């Protein structure tokens, strides 16, 4: 069953076509990955699906669980069970980590808040700290993921989930991706990392705003070996992309 259906999606920003006649089916309960060179349109795709400001004016349609979300606000999409983890997590001056996680949690009990935090490898001692500049980028990314774990969303888009994360923390995040799946969430990974890509079951290769390949991860993984699929675009992945 398709949870998200993207049909003939075209996004133009500042006079430049970023996404060009895109068609995608996201299967319910699966982990998908979207890969491609810098500038291919991966983050634009995530922002458009989520309905962020500046990404609401597009051609085509996005359907979530059979319903068009084209004219729905980000809050309305969130209430339907959609969420996005930013590549660069936001700061919320004055808001404690406990309150930040509890705000969107389905189960707002202290036990559930602590479990979500522990799942991403952060101790209970952080609960009373503020979500502010005193936290490292990696800590903020893990805390944002903890808030998503507590939400139990129907679908979550993770934009570069390994960005700014050390090796030990990455193991926790990869485990959380599979935990989200087991809890019933559909996951879309936007990534340059072979390690993260391997957590997916199905992948899309995006280049020049178009899907130029899709299928099992093992097939699309050739992109990371600089074996580009022939197409009419000049973009080619850098040889270092996808390396650890």
Automatic annotation (TrEMBL):
The UniProt record lists the keyword Acetylation: no
Domain of life per record: Bacteria
Keywords: ATP-binding, Nucleotide-binding, Transport
Pfam families, per the entry: ABC_tran
Start and end residues of each ABC transporter domain: 4-233
Record has Transmembrane helix as a keyword: no
UniProt-recorded Gene Ontology molecular function terms: ATP binding; ATP hydrolysis activity
Xref: Gene3D superfamilies: P-loop containing nucleotide triphosphate hydrolases
One Gene Ontology cellular component annotation held by this UniProt entry: plasma membrane
Entry protein name: ABC transporter ATP-binding protein
UniProt source species: candidate division WOR-3 bacterium JGI_Cruoil_03_51_56
